[in-house]
Amino acid sequence: MRVGVLTGGGDCPGLNAVIRAIVRRGAKEFGYEFIGFRDGWRGPLEGDTVPLDVQAVRGILPRDQALARMASLALKAPAVTT
Fold it and tell me: Exposed/middle/buried for 75, CB within 10 Å: 0-12, 13-18, 19+?
């Protein structure tokens, strides 16, 4: 199974620990493959991804920003006319 990881990009203590945990457990116990989407919603919209494997998440816990430059992209809702 291939799993995509997308974050909202806001300040979120512990997010790197969550990314690391899902990748390590999913890969080791279930054989899942993970990809991270770069720059929030821009990643899936433009196909900008980074492979996430156990090696990629090694050492991410002390980093200040979430792995793979995961940040939000403001999406505007279409205008509603009445």
Answer: exposed
